[in-house]
Amino acid sequence: MNSKTKKELYWIEGILLATFITGVLVFGDALWDGQPIDIQLHDTYFVFTKTLFLVVVFIVLFVMVYGCRAAFSSSGIILKIVMGILVVIVIGTLIIIRSAMYRLRQPAAFMASPPVEERWEGKFSRAKYPSDKYTIAYDTIEADSFRIVLIVAVESDTTFTQTGEVWAQRLVGDSVTQKCVGSIDSEVGVWVPDQQPIPGMFMTVEYSEYGGKINLVGKQGDFIEIPGTLYALDVKDRIYTAYVNGHDTLVHEYDLRNHRGTNLDNKQFLRNDLTFQQAGPGRWLYRQK
């Protein structure tokens, strides 16, 4: 290997090192968590992997470095002008990327704009909830090994009773699974426990006096919908549900190990060995009484 080839390899290795350092400075420990990047540019959100981001950074640095080398090593004035303009464009691009990443590093509690790109047909869409009729809030929750985004869409033109819907999105890497987990009305709301009762899963409860449903989702698989608002777990990892005013009868049994559900049709009475939980410490999403 001649000295010229070695020199070029050193330059490429330096660019790779600079790319890695950029990734560490921007993401920190989150560089390795497999979560996608949500970047807002004006009114548009872009979602892509960190690997793609680092590839773009590498290409930008590569063009900038070799553009500078070509400009300073050439005697042609036209080439120097062209390369100078190219370097300015590349530096401007880096500044824009850094400004967008500043928002990424901020705490993601409630966000004013959607955290995922709306490209999944049949799922949550801003087109269904126009801004002149709905107020939309986003709440990001970090679960064990995935991320949950709760989306609350409430009609903004109602005088006495707020109505709307609550959506939940599960994000794992580039994968997004989402579902409408409940409605908002005069006697209906959605409740999220502060302490999730089932390890590795996230629970929401659509709560009403005579109905409702429980939705469960984990890192893998689809949402599991179980009728009922009160819930209890036994030692065999089975969840039992009942309604608040269900006359002390069971509604449903779901086996978390074998992923099988059984409709009990209110024919079995509540068991003494089960301790049922209901809405308590946690967050209510627009429930009126």
From TrEMBL:
<keyword id="KW-0472">Membrane</keyword>
<feature type="transmembrane region" description="Helical">
    <location>
        <begin position="77"/>
        <end position="97"/>
    </location>
</feature>
<keyword id="KW-0812">Transmembrane</keyword>
<protein>
    <submittedName>
        <fullName>Uncharacterized protein</fullName>
    </submittedName>
</protein>
<feature type="transmembrane region" description="Helical">
    <location>
        <begin position="9"/>
        <end position="32"/>
    </location>
</feature>
<keyword id="KW-1133">Transmembrane helix</keyword>
<feature type="transmembrane region" description="Helical">
    <location>
        <begin position="44"/>
        <end position="65"/>
    </location>
</feature>
